[in-house]
Amino acid sequence: MIDISTQSERANETSPEARKKGLTLIFDFDGTIADTMAAIVRLANKYNATLGIPPLDRDEIEAMRGMSSREILKKHRIPLAKLPYLVIHYQRELGREIDKLGLFPGVREVLMELKTLGVKLGILTSNSAENVEKFLQARDIDVFDFVHSERNFFGKSRALKHVMKEEDVHKDDVIYVGDEARDIEACRKAKVPVIAVSWGFQRRDFLAGQDPTYLVDSPDEILEIVTA
Question: What is the pTM for the complete model shown?
Fold first, then answer.
């Protein structure tokens, strides 16, 4: 992992040749661009009773930030078979307020600068493309070249490979940006460098333990990586 303040020999995963015009940055959406965590927790508590799951309090939410997605599902006894239904349900409910949710500070400015530099920008998310587009339009952000939605919650590595093929970009010219351990795992399987961001769902110390290529604490640091 390259903590932006601590260099590592793993930097050769994104060589200087890869950090030039022609680079593609693919972003996660929830927890990386959009601050949807509070809304998702509120929706989860609203419908947890129907699944027999106790409401999430502040301590429980903080504990979850240090757990993998699979550990969270196991702890709350949520069967994998129910996950697609829950994801679709939450997406539908979230769509009713998505245009009112916050953009993480500094993200807009960095996205605009990356676009100016000629970096190709995309989104790969388990949220719906409709929600993402609605959010971006509400904030007048028109910098993304593509938005791909992946319904398989644990299928991000396959989705990432599919997106690279569809967009005709090579893995050596791609960096993924996300806020969860499953993003790091997916990139490892797809052999794509990953920038883990500490302002999203999972805690910094937990992300560091997953050994991402980079770990950053502010959007400006993404720009530093690209322009180094």
Answer: 0.83
